[in-house]
Write a structure and sequence with these properties.
Number of strands: 11
Number of domains: 2
Keywords: Methyltransferase, Transferase
CATH class of the largest domain: Alpha Beta
CATH architecture of the largest domain: 3-Layer(aba) Sandwich
Distance between the termini: 51 Å
Organism: Kutzneria chonburiensis
Number of helices: 6
Helix content: 10-25%
Structural class: alpha/beta
Shape: globular
GO molecular function, one term: methyltransferase activity
Protein name: Class I SAM-dependent methyltransferase
Pfam families: Methyltransf_25
CATH superfamily of the largest domain: Vaccinia Virus protein VP39
Strand content: 25-35%
Bound molecules: S-adenosylmethionine
Order of helices and strands: HHEHEHEEHEEEEEHEE
């Protein structure tokens, strides 16, 4: 049976979808970029392919995801409880709803503070998180999808528990002809207001918030909260 990380790229192929284009354009427009929770490194690899010649660094706490990345990228194992960059990047991004893996206020603050330290003055942190108001997780058990893997169609479907606080527990079932995986996961659905207040606590200000990948303003019931945060200048910088 394959590991979950071995299936990730086939399950989440780069598609040139609106979110892929949104982040790739941002990365191509920045000289130095930190990809927070870079997973299998696809965004940075696409930026290199598209001609980015500046500094591109990614990190992820899941070594099995990093192991699936193409060779030649600058990828580091860990998270911002241990890794540290100081005043080095014009842009930080956190894509693929990776921000929702931060389950507690302490995790969120550690990450936001680490990103703030890593950004140069004027730098931006851009990421998305699903809006709890849209209650998207309630739709997941009704659907499912298939993807091709090693010559066969593999099926994915979700079992989802009712939300407790702002955390949703789920099981991702991946079913092939000769094997089946059931991976438990947890995702936090932070409200736009709580997000802004945690950002402020970490020294970051919300400078833009979109509800769609074509940059329409965030509305109360938007599916996504796509946030652009700016680091407040630190004393002594
Ligand atoms: C759904 S994947 C997204 C990966 C990649 N950003 C993408 O768009 O394909 C979520 C990623 O967040 C990572 N992650 C979990 N906790 C994290 C943390 N505290 N800091 C950074 N990344 C984290 C996971 O290991 C995983 O690779």
């Amino acid at each position: 049976m394959p590991e979950a990380a071995e299936l990730y790229n086939a399950m989440n192929p780069w598609s040139g979808r609106a979110d892929d284009r949104f982040y790739l354009d941002l990365v191509l427009g920045a000289e130095s970029v930190l990809d927070v929770g870079c997973g299998t490194g696809t965004l940075l690899a696409k930026a290199r392919e598209a001609g980015h010649t500046g500094r591109l660094v990614g990190f992820d706490p899941d070594a099995s995801m990093l192991a699936q990345a193409p060779a030649g990228l600058d990828l580091v194992h860990g998270d911002l409880s241990t890794l540290h960059w100081d005043n080095e990047f014009d842009l930080a991004v956190m894509t693929g709803h990776a921000f929702q893996c931060l389950l507690t206020d302490a995790d969120v603050l550690t990450t936001l503070r680490g990103v703030r330290a890593a950004l140069k003055p004027g730098g931006r942190f851009v990421f998305e998180t699903r809006n709890p108001v849209a209650r998207e997780w309630e739709q997941w058990p009704l659907g499912g999808f298939e993807f091709p893997w090693e010559g066969e169609q593999v099926r994915v479907f979700y079992e989802v528990q009712p939300i407790v606080g702002d955390v949703v527990d789920l099981v991702e079932n991946i079913v092939a002809a000769g094997w089946q995986r059931a991976d438990a996961g947890r995702l936090r659905f932070l409200s736009a207001e709580r997000l802004a207040s945690l950002a402020a606590e970490a020294g970051l200000d919300v400078v833009d918030q979109y509800g769609t990948w074509d940059r329409k303003p965030f509305e109360t019931d938007s599916a996504e909260i796509i946030s652009v945060l700016a680091a407040r200048p630190a004393r002594g910088r």
